[in-house]
Design a protein that fits this description.
The protein is mostly beta strands and 268 residues long. It is 9% helix and 31% strand.
C-alpha cells in the first residue's frame, strides 16, 4: 500500500484552509478526484491540482511536502491515519484532532492542538502561541492526547487545557499553564513570565526554575515524587522519547486566586 503524496508548487500570498487534507479522506481517490478537491484560498475556491503536484495512494497515510506558513488547519478533526508534513505550517495544526498521528518536520503557527481530544502531534522545531489552548470563545482547550515539541513553544501554552500531555524539550513562553483546568505540561528548559496564571488544577513541570513565581503560589518544599517515575516511563514509550532528569522536585501550589489546587514542579 502506498501513501498519498502532495507537493505544493509554491507558497501562496493568502492563507489556505487545508482542513480537507486528511489521510483517510484522500486514501483511494484517483488523481483526477484529488486534483478537483476544492480548497479555500483567501476568499476564493481553488482546486488542489492548481496548488500541488499529486501522487495518489491507497494507504491512510498522507505526505505533504514543501508546506509553508500559509497552510492553516492541517489535520483538523483528524480521526485516524498518519499525516507527515515537511516544512512549516500556519495556525490550528491538529485542531480538534481525535486520533492518529501528525508528524511535522518544521515549525507550527499559533493554536496548534486547539481542542485536541486524542492522538499524537509531534512538532520537530518550534510551536507558536496558545499550543493546546482554547480558541477565543471556547470554554476549554486540549482535552486529551499528547503533544511533543522538539524546540521551544510560544506564549500561553495549555491555556484552559482540561486533560492530556504537552511535553516541550525547549523553553515555554510567557504565561504557560494559564487558566489550566487539568492535564500535564512539561517545559524542560524552563519558561517565561507568570507561569500558572489563574491555574485551577493540573501540573506544570519545569526543568529549570523561572526567574520569579507569582505570589499566589506557595512553596511546599523539595520532595521525591514517585509518580514522576511513572511519568518518565510513559514519556519513554512515546516517539520521540523525552527524558526527565529525575524524580525530585520543588513543589509550588496555586493559584490561590482560583482555589490553589494546581501545582508547579521545578526539577531539583
Amino acid at each position: 500500500m502506498s501513501a498519498v503524496r502532495l507537493r505544493f508548487r509554491e507558497a501562496t500570498s493568502l492563507p489556505v484552509d487545508a482542513s480537507p487534507l486528511l489521510p483517510r479522506a484522500l486514501a483511494g481517490r484517483s488523481a483526477a478526484e484529488l486534483a478537483a478537491l476544492p480548497l479555500r484560498v483567501g476568499n476564493r475556491v481553488v482546486p488542489l491540482g492548481e496548488l500541488a503536484e499529486i501522487e495518489p495512494g491507497d494507504a491512510d497515510t498522507l505526505v505533504i511536502e514543501a508546506s509553508f506558513k500559509g497552510l492553516d488547519r492541517l489535520g483538523r478533526g483528524m480521526a485516524g491515519g498518519r499525516l507527515e508534513i515537511y516544512g512549516d505550517v500556519g495556525a490550528y495544526l491538529g485542531q480538534e484532532m481525535r486520533d492518529g498521528r501528525i508528524e511535522l518536520f518544521g515549525s507550527a503557527g499559533p493554536f496548534a492542538a486547539a481542542g485536541m481530544a486524542g492522538g499524537i502531534l509531534h512538532v520537530t522545531a518550534r510551536a507558536g502561541d496558545h499550543l493546546g489552548g482554547a480558541l477565543p470563545g471556547d470554554s476549554h482547550g486540549m482535552t486529551g492526547g499528547a503533544v511533543l515539541v522538539g524546540g521551544d513553544a510560544g506564549k500561553r501554552v495549555g491555556d484552559r487545557m482540561r486533560r492530556g500531555l504537552i511535553a516541550v524539550a525547549g523553553r515555554l513562553g510567557d504565561f504557560p499553564a494559564s487558566r489550566l483546568i487539568g492535564g500535564t505540561i512539561i517545559g524542560l528548559e524552563g519558561c517565561g513570565r507568570e507561569p500558572g496564571h489563574a491555574m485551577r488544577r493540573g501540573t506544570l513541570l519545569l526543568g529549570r526554575a523561572p526567574s520569579r513565581l507569582p505570589v499566589t503560589f506557595a512553596d511546599n518544599g523539595t520532595h521525591t515524587f514517585p509518580w514522576l517515575s511513572l511519568l518518565a516511563r510513559h514519556l519513554a514509550t512515546l516517539t520521540p522519547a523525552i527524558a526527565l532528569p529525575g524524580d525530585r522536585a520543588t513543589r509550588w501550589t496555586g493559584c490561590a486566586s482560583t482555589g490553589g489546587k494546581g501545582e508547579i514542579l521545578v526539577m531539583a
